[in-house]
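Posting this for the archive.
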Amino acid sequence: MTMQEAAEHADRLLDGTLAAIEPGVHWTHGETTVGTCDVSRRRAVMTVISPERREEFLGAVERYWTAQGYRKVGVNRSAKSPATYFETPDRFRVRLLVGGNGQAFFEAATPCVTKSSVSPPTAKTVGPDYAGGPVPDPDVTSGFWSSAAPGT
């Protein structure tokens, strides 16, 4: 597998994850980083995830990743910046981190593969695409994910 093929696979992992979140969220491409033999793709959620809904958001993603056969490899239970880390059967690593202002960040990192050039991601974002520039704080409210009401 080349770095380009691995990057495309990482994109599909992120596409599937974001498509599985109900109700849906707005998101944008984040930075792509290229190492000597690996690639990381990132996406930032532009929908505000309230403190009251963060555990539910993480749980929804964890259930999806578990159903896909991914193995949990770590967790950060911080109330301020919770995160969960999984590994796919083909050794790709995926992460969800909820940071400041309720912004969720996804990352898919490839294992070491054959060196090649890597093109930018092609998936169409839900909302404005901030790829290539700084990603602003989340600015989309959701009646569900942004709610101050306790999760179900």
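The domain at 3-101 is CATH 3.30.460 (Beta Polymerase; domain 2). The chain has a mean pLDDT of 95.
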